[in-house]
Design a protein that fits this description.
7 helices, Aminopeptidase, binds zinc ion, 14% strand, 255 residues
């Protein structure tokens, strides 16, 4: 067969003879088991509605030819926050999406929000990652992490988390834009906070507050099949447009 020239100047160009890498998305339904999360006035539990939305998102991702989903929990059980991140790293996820429903004292609060990790949350975690030799060597591809390499590891970890936050803000923006098409937004921009589940230094990670379960109208929507479908579709669309603009490179740096 005649192999067409590869369009090297256009990284997003179609490459029909090259196998595309499967993109792995870790879906993290918040709470679970003895932790119900927030509870709405009508009695809906956050852990249940976010699991339903997550199942819908998983089905849509698995239906994509170039994507597969992994769930940090696929039933009603509790998973510690750090274990959720470990599960995503074990499958070398390209993206981590945590799904929650918000709550506030006032029932008027409404709308969806999307969060990425904050710089401060990242730097407070960096020290702990570096203290754990296994994490650190894992992070830089198995290179020997002797004492003399501590400085190098520090620099690599900082570069990695800065890139992670940048990527997370981009995917967050894409997802927030899509959700804005089907529901009110609580905040028009991606917010940043030190959420523990967003702290994998090498996986773009976002946390979606899909709506306020403490708002009676939004509680009803969160339980509505059609709205859950719309939410899952919006999240998928945001993820796809992010990947289309930022195709992940090879997992193994060719150093
Ligand atoms: Zn939550």
């Amino acid at each position: 067969p005649v192999v067409p020239p590869v369009a090297r100047d256009n990284p997003t160009a179609e490459r029909p003879f090259k196998m595309r890498r499967l993109l792995t998305v870790a879906i993290d339904p918040g709470h679970g088991g003895e932790d119900p999360g927030a509870i709405g006035a009508a009695g809906s539990r956050e852990k249940d509605v976010v699991l339903q939305i997550a199942h819908r998102l998983r089905a849509k991702i698995d239906a994509q030819p170039n994507m597969r989903a992994m769930m940090t929990r696929d039933a009603d059980f509790f998973v510690p926050l750090n274990v959720r991140v470990q599960k995503a790293r074990r499958v070398q996820a390209d993206l981590f999406v945590s799904i929650h429903a918000d709550a506030f004292l006032s029932p008027e609060a409404r709308g969806a929000s999307v969060f990425a990790l904050s710089e401060r949350g990242a730097s407070s975690t960096a020290a702990r990652w570096l203290a754990n030799k296994e994490n650190a060597s894992d992070l830089i591809g198995g290179a020997n992490m002797g004492n003399k390499d501590a400085q190098v590891a520090r620099v690599l970890l900082d570069l990695s988390t800065t890139a992670q936050i940048n990527d997370s803000l981009q995917v967050g923006k894409a997802v927030l834009g899509e959700i804005g098409g089907i529901n009110k937004l609580h905040k028009a921009r991606v917010e940043q906070a030190g959420f523990a589940v967003l702290k994998a230094p090498d996986i773009p990670s976002i946390l979606i507050e899909t709506a306020f379960i403490s708002n009676p109208e939004e509680e009803r929507k969160l339980n509505d099949n059609a709205h859950q479908e719309q939410l899952a579709n919006a999240i998928l669309k945001g993820i796809r447009s992010y990947f289309a603009r930022n195709p992940p490179l090879s997992k193994n740096p060719s150093v």
